[in-house]
Write a structure and sequence with these properties.
By secondary structure, the chain is α/β, with parallel strands linked by helices. The protein has helices at about 20-35, 50-60, 95, 115-125, 145-150, 205-210, 220-240, 255-260, 270-275, 280-285, 305-315, 350-355, 360-375; strands at about 5-10, 40, 60-70, 75-85, 90, 130-135, 155, 175-180, 190-195, 265-270, 290, 295, 320-325, 325-330, 340-345. The chain has two domains: about 5-45 and about 280-375, Rossmann fold (3-Layer(aba) Sandwich), CATH 3.40.50; about 50-270, Glycerate kinase, domain 2, CATH 3.90.1510. It contains 13 helices and 15 strands. The protein has a six-stranded mixed β-sheet with strand order 3-4-5-6-9-10, sandwiched between helices. The longest helix is centred in the middle third of the chain and has 22 residues, at about 220-240.
Length: about 375
């Protein structure tokens, strides 16, 4: 059997295994069958949960712990990272205002805020950092970035001349906005927005309609939140003389994408940013096989998710991509055009809960089977 190079570049199995855990588990399984293979693990993310860990694992850096306002308005401990270049800050929205932070019974986008994100930014800016990568995904908020902008000093006043509260339910009350009070250091910063969401701020494809229900919004709230964000954007855009609400990605993370566009942020594919920083393409150039995966793969995987991005690079350089995911859902057959083979880790009839509880063991077994096939075929 000839020597082979293998790159393992998975997303996380959300709620079960981090991308690092997925990657190292597959690595251990392959080495148990093909011990002399050259294997590189490159944990991936699309800007959502696991983004910071992926950067830290791949290229290293320093983590900063900080106490800020959580999504429910109380104080929480969170973290951000500075990469090994000593100047680039990575902020993962999911770690500050993420849905997993909010207990299911308290999920209500009327009652959540993005305020803590602005506090983390100030903490980094006041320590001299000016370059930011923002992992924009997995938020529990639908406030259009109102809270974050308030934390950064932007003034929002209601019809009674009072300061607007930094929660989703107050977005509709914005009557006056003043950016002259914005923290002066913000203008010195550059923001790369890592997101694979291309939704506008408002409308049927907007933040409220598409993502509101998973954050606890009722059908009535979805309608009212969408109307509120449209009102909010109209007030802001009348003030600044520019429109961003229909820009692709403005609806990401409950409208945080819109707020970062107001700050001069540049929307970029989350998968692409991480791939560039981790030099994924250079590693795949040398690979014979590439293993990727995610929690659930289906027809939506082709819409810019991590596995499809990894597969496209693999095909470009003649490497053979294999998909190992937690599950295969509706329309997964379309994935065969992009992968040599597609695998689910489930070993038989299992509930989602069982599969998640046993994910590491199941993944190891399935990866071992894939490795045995590769070895038996003599590649």
């Amino acid at each position: 059997m000839t020597f082979m190079n293998i790159v393992i570049a998975p997303d996380s199995y959300k709620g079960s295994l981090t991308a690092i855990e997925v990657g190292t588990t597959i690595q251990q399984a392959f080495l148990s069958e093909i011990p002399h293979a050259g294997i590189e693990v490159v944990p991936m993310a699309d800007g959502g949960e696991g983004t910071l860990d992926s950067f830290m694992y791949a290229i290293g850096g320093k983590r900063f712990c900080v106490e800020v306002t959580g999504p429910l308005g109380d104080k929480i401990e969170t973290e951000y990272g500075v990469l090994n270049d000593g100047k680039t800050v990575v902020i993962e929205i999911a770690k500050i205002a993420g849905l997993p932070i909010v207990p299911p019974e308290k999920r209500d986008p009327y009652k959540t805020t993005s305020y803590g994100i602005g506090e983390v930014m100030i903490h980094a800016m006041e320590r001299g950092y000016r370059q930011f990568i923002i992992g924009l995904g997995g938020s529990a908020t639908n406030d259009g970035g109102l809270g974050m902008l308030q934390a950064l000093g932007v003034t929002f006043i209601d019809g009674n001349g009072e300061s607007v509260k930094p929660f989703g339910e107050a977005v509709k009350e914005v009557a006056i906005v003043d950016f002259s009070s914005l923290h002066p250091l913000v203008k010195e910063c550059q923001f790369q927005i890592a997101s694979d969401v291309d939704n506008p701020l408002c409308g049927e494809r907007g933040a409220s309609h598409v993502f509101g229900p998973q954050k606890g919004a009722t059908p009535r709230q979805v309608f009212e939140l969408d109307k509120a964000l449209d009102h909010y954007a109209n007030v802001v855009e009348k003030k600044i003389g520019k429109s961003y609400k229909n820009v692709k990605g403005a609806g990401a993370a409950g409208g945080l994408g819109y707020a970062f566009l107001l700050l001069g942020g540049k929307m970029m594919s989350g998968s692409r940013i991480i791939a560039e920083v981790t030099q994924l393409e250079e590693k795949i150039k040398r690979a014979d096989w590439v293993i990727t995966g995610e929690g659930q793969s289906d027809f939506q995987t082709l819409y810019g998710k991590v596995p499809s991005y990894v597969a496209a690079i693999s095909k470009q350089y003649g490497a053979k991509p294999i998909l190992i995911s937690g599950g295969l859902g509706t329309g997964y057959e379309q994935l065969y055009e992009h992968f040599v083979s597609c695998h689910s880790i489930a070993s038989g009839p299992m509930s989602l809960e069982q599969c998640m509880e046993q994910a590491k063991e199941l993944l190891f077994t399935q990866a071992k089977n894939v490795a045995r096939l590769i070895k038996a075929a003599g590649f």
